[in-house]
Design a protein that fits this description.
Blueprint (H helix, E strand, L loop, with lengths): L4 E6 L8 H10 L3 E6 L9 H8 L15 H8 L2 E7 L1 H9 L5 H8 L4 E5 L3 H5 L1 H12 L3 E2 L3 E4 L5 E5 L3 H14 L11 E6 L4 E2 L5 E2 L6 H12 L3 E6 L11 E5 L3 H11 L5 E4 L6 E3 L24 E3 L3 H10 L8 E8 L7 H12 L3 E6 L10 E8 L4 E8 H20 L1
Parallel strand pairs: 1-2, 1-3, 3-4, 4-5, 8-11, 8-13, 11-12, 13-16, 16-17
Antiparallel strand pairs: 6-7, 9-10, 14-15, 17-18, 18-19
Length: about 425
């Protein structure tokens, strides 16, 4: 991504220290970052820290460098404004259009996407005043992230925790890639997402697995949640990934466990996104103790033969269950296909055949290979629909691809409501 001008606003809350990581990550991504804190924020993190991380001066008031008119210019020139943390007080001042410091003045003059990352105690987040303020900001086109749940200040715990810096900068990158705000258009929609690879045990030490990292599925869950959906994420092998804020995460290991988790949560879901790389086969017999190898290198006959059994097709089973009337709430089922071409046909040939077999509503197709699809941060592919439409998904971050897929899901749901 080309370098962009990003303003990071910092309000006065204990989570202000996390803004340092946000600034660093945005700067390391090649963007020009200007930090605009409130006076209260500087009681938590000094101006020198933000200046060192951003390489730009830090001011809070409108009477510094007046000849440059910073209270107007900073917002006018920005490609993105990120406020992290956004306290209850800052949200209230933004809604009322206050311009009593450099940050609120910048918010009034910005004509680029604006993203607020709230951080406050649970009682403040759920107070009717804050609920109304968030709704007003979203109605005006601002992106207000769902906060994470977890440890707050003191012994308190609950909703209102600032999302991790990686999540904030990932969504900031998405807004820069999209060039527009992220719509909050899935309120009331329950989305079930599967992600990551399954592991099928051979013995207590070994397993059969695949190269899926879970990044695409996590991106799907993250984007859907930030667009207002109530998201449950069933996560397989996703080592090192940060659980998305505002998402209920269920961790599983094997294909059988994934099947059980989908069966449990699917009846309440309106949308199923099967982004997980589910094993097609599992060992028929699992050894109760580690299978030992011979210490004699010449005894190759001692290598064990592993008998395999086909696993249940979770996607196809869900489609059938809906057709049988067992999932009356399910309005959209999205499959994923990682394909390679062969002597019989190219990637799209196999994808079209898979869509026909699975009978899902949408199928996302990725061509896999070295450095493609698995274990990387970017992706491309095609989006196929049951009515025969095919659209290319241009190369970009997996978060951008997720947003394009969610665009299609939202459009599909809208068409079904007409």
């Amino acid at each position: 991504m080309e370098s962009k001008r990003v303003v990071v606003g910092v309000a006065g809350g204990i989570a202000a220290y996390k803004a340092c990581t946000v600034v660093r990550q945005l700067a390391e991504a090649g963007h020009s970052v200007r930090v605009v804190p409130t006076e209260a924020a500087l009681k938590f993190v000094g101006a020198a820290t933000f200046e060192a991380l951003s390489g730009q001066p830090v001011h809070t008031g409108v009477f510094t460098n007046v000849d440059e008119v910073p209270h107007v210019r900073i917002g006018q020139e920005a490609d993105l404004v990120v406020v992290a943390p956004a306290t209850a007080d800052l949200l209230a001042r933004a809604v009322s259009g206050r311009a009593d410091d450099l940050l609120t003045a910048t918010l009034l003059t910005a004509r680029c996407p604006v993203m607020f990352a709230p951080a406050m105690h649970t009682e403040m987040w759920f107070h009717p005043a804050t609920v109304d303020n968030v709704a007003t900001l979203r109605r005006r086109g601002a992106v207000v992230l769902e906060p994470a749940s977890g440890r707050l200040t003191g012994a308190d715990s609950g909703a209102g925790r600032l999302p991790e810096a990686e999540e904030i900068t990932t969504l900031a990158g998405l807004l820069l890639e999209r060039g527009d705000a992220l719509p909050h258009d899935l309120s009331g929609v329950k989305v079930l997402v599967t992600a990551g690879g399954t592991r099928e045990p051979i013995d207590p030490v070994r397993f059969i697995g695949n190269r899926s990292s879970g990044k695409q599925g996590y991106a799907m869950a993250r984007v859907a949640a930030q667009r207002g959906a109530e998201v449950t994420l069933i996560a397989g092998n996703t080592v090192g990934l940060v659980d998305p804020a505002g998402v209920d995460v269920v961790h599983i290991g094997s294909a059988s466990q994934l099947k059980d988790a989908v069966s449990k949560h699917a009846p309440e879901a309106h949308v199923l996104v099967m982004a997980a790389a589910v094993a097609d086969f599992r060992p028929t017999h699992v050894a109760t103790s580690k299978i030992k190898k011979s210490h004699d290198p010449g005894r190759t006959a001692d290598a064990p033969a592993i008998e395999l059994t086909r696993t249940d097709d979770v996607l196809a089973n869900t489609v059938r269950a809906r057709a049988d009337g067992l999932l009356p709430n399910m309005r959209a089922i999205v499959g994923f296909a990682a394909e390679t071409g062969d002597a019989n046909g190219d990637v799209l040939f196999h994808a079209r055949a898979k869509l026909q077999r699975k009978a899902c509503d949408l199928l996302v197709v990725n061509a896999v290979g070295e450095g493609r699809a698995f274990e990387v941060d970017s992706n491309d592919g095609w989006l196929l629909t049951a009515d025969g439409n095919e659209a290319a998904l241009e190369h970009g971050s997996k978060t951008l691809m997720a947003s394009r897929i969610v665009d299609a899901i939202a459009a599909f749901l809208g068409n079904k409501n007409e």
